[in-house]
């Protein structure tokens, strides 16, 4: 019996192909006739990524694979590929894993490659990975696989939702304007988000200097501390024309100068000291001098 199987190229962009099948010849709206449903058909799976735990710098997730073939065919194996962005695989289970750059390839394991029509891979494959705070969770390269989990309203669109939003929605297709990360203390200012590295000299839209999500305020450092306070000696040169200061500590950038942070948006300060030569009627000798004052506007994040 001849069976006509019309396959959509867009739907096959991400499908996991069975052993012996190839997507190279697939074209939009291409029709193929085959002799039976048990061989010659492209049998497809879809996959969803379900995050089971997320602690900001890492996460664990299950990869749920389903055989969506409408015929009574059983898969023999499956493969999915994920874009990991900044995430790095640490361990996985019930499948074989291989990461090259940002691409993670997952192949079915010894016990879950065979999936009956309409069934799901069991036992479920999964993995854990490290992740830079604030960066996206993995997505399927084809765009068919979806994230399943709780998302929260991200009013300012910076990828970090309001920390006070406790009315998230569970979805397998994250909508626009929502984020799985919700640690934003000022969701009306897109400059405020977890992982912010820039410093600012003016308050955010909420009137604070907390720009790095809710991680607290950190101040920009303009130079080392403890250098002005370090011991210093002054020695008259052999030709008695100048005074030579002893070497400051290694961390002091060649000077006995210390930097003190100020209040956010106000002044930071510096203090410095050195040697100077003094000429008097009775001779020449060395002395120390010191100075300091505001050095600029204190920036914070």
Compose a concise summary of this entry.
It contains no helices and 19 strands. The protein has 301 residues and is mainly beta.
Label this structure with key terms.
301 residues; Immunoglobulin-like; 8-stranded mixed sheet; 19 strands
Explain what you see.
The protein is an all-beta fold and 301 residues long. The radius of gyration is 32 Å and the shape is elongated. The N terminus is likely disordered. Among the domains are: 143 residues, Immunoglobulin-like (Sandwich); 64 residues, no CATH class. Strands 2, 4, 5, 7, 10, 12, 13 and 14 form an 8-stranded mixed sheet that branches. A 4-stranded antiparallel sheet has the order 8-9-6-11, with no helix packed on it. A hairpin with a 2-residue loop joins strand 8 and strand 9.
Secondary-structure element sequence?
EEEEEEEEEEEEEEEEEEE
By DSSP, the count of extended strands is 19
By CATH, the topology of the domain at 3-145 is Immunoglobulin-like
> What would you report as the Rg, rounded to the nearest angstrom?
32 Å
Helix and strand content put the structural class at mainly beta
Quaternary assembly: single chain
Low-pLDDT parts are 1-43, 142-147
Rounded to the nearest angstrom, the distance between the terminal CA atoms is 70 Å
- Please state the overall shape, judged from the principal axes of the Cα atoms: elongated
Please give the count of helices: 0
Largest sheet: 8 strands, mixed
Average pLDDT across residues?
Answer: 80
Q: Could you estimate the helical fraction of the residues in percent?
A: under 10%
